[in-house]
Amino acid sequence: MGSGKVWTGKWQGGRTFTAKDGRPVYVLRKMVAGKTYTVHLDARSETEAEAELALFMRDPEGYRTKGEAQKLKQESAVYLDAPTVGRYLDFMRRAGTTPRYVSSVGFYLAAWAEAFSGRDWRTVTLQDLLRELNRQATARKNRVTALKAFCAWLREEEGTLTVAEDATISLKVPVSRPEKSVREKGYSIETIERLYRAITGWEFTNFDREDMRRVTDVQCVRDVLCLHAKTGMHGTEIERLAQGEGKITILKEPGEIAATLRFVHKSGRVHVQSIDRQALAAAQRLQARGAAPVDSHIRRVVRRACKALGMELVRFGELRHSFVTWASECGQEVRPKSGGLPLAAIAAVVGHTSPATTKRFYENVAVPPMIKVPLRLEHPEDPAVLPIKAAAAS
């Protein structure tokens, strides 16, 4: 032996020598298909060595010792860590996912990452996931949905996780709690008017720049509330509008309808909505800001206002339902100064069996009717609404 080792014995698969610490080392020496293999085994006894020999003979090329297999496993480990989550969120952004939903998914994945920090995701079992899920009191459906989508990305895009290794495949998405079917949806006009007046930023006796910034941040929450309550827009639509993806067109001859908002509806169709002067001012301020306030800021401001009023938390997501309810109970249809007829009347004349058919042909009408509800959103901190001509000139 050129290495200075002295063979001390033989076994079924080869020979043995004694290590410096006195333990026997089993060396596998075999010729298979004309190729000679010499492998130092991680075996503590001849029985273990014979078991490794059986594994070797099953697949000589693919055989790895215990140490080699462990090292290879560590090198190919899959972790739910910040860099991996960051790549997934970038993938979502490139796919056109809204910033709001990306932020929400990032929040839930961060919670999973904290729970399984340093754990090779391939070793996580369904029981591990269920135990962690049972420790979470809220948003279980969202947590599971975010995790399953992330693991699907690991399998299909990254290729670092196999179906056999992915415990989330057997993880069922919980059924949403029937909260909305139990409690009454929507709010009264009086509730929203009181809330609007209570959303205030004037809490200081001497203003500095930081105080003024906080007042402005509170104003943008009122602006979001105004658009929700006066138009029934989705939150994602208001976000896109604020980011400049929605177009504001001021009417040359404004009446009660001051302008139109043109944006892509969540169905994918282009939607045009008429708005009054107050909603126009709110939309312009949000676009000048460049972004709608984040959900956490809205909840913080609204929670403080609701607490001051002694009322339950108002959820902006239900204002669309409120708007539809108000419109059906006490709304009025306001048409442009240039006139126009309701779609139902046009459908009757042209022979369409449903106004919905008419709408598909004429949904890009320049100035659609506006639904006016008896909602007065007033606050002493609101900037004065400029005349329409002055706003257009700016």
UniProtKB/TrEMBL annotation:
- What does the UniProt keyword field contain? Chromosome partition, DNA recombination
Q: Which domain of life is it from?
A: Bacteria
InterPro entries from the entry?
DNA_brk_join_enz, Integrase-like_cat_sf, Tyrosine_recombinase_XerCD
What are the protein's GO molecular function terms? DNA binding
A Gene Ontology annotation in the biological process aspect, one of them, is: DNA recombination
Q: What is this protein called?
A: Site-specific integrase
Q: Give the organism, scientific name.
A: Corallococcus exiguus
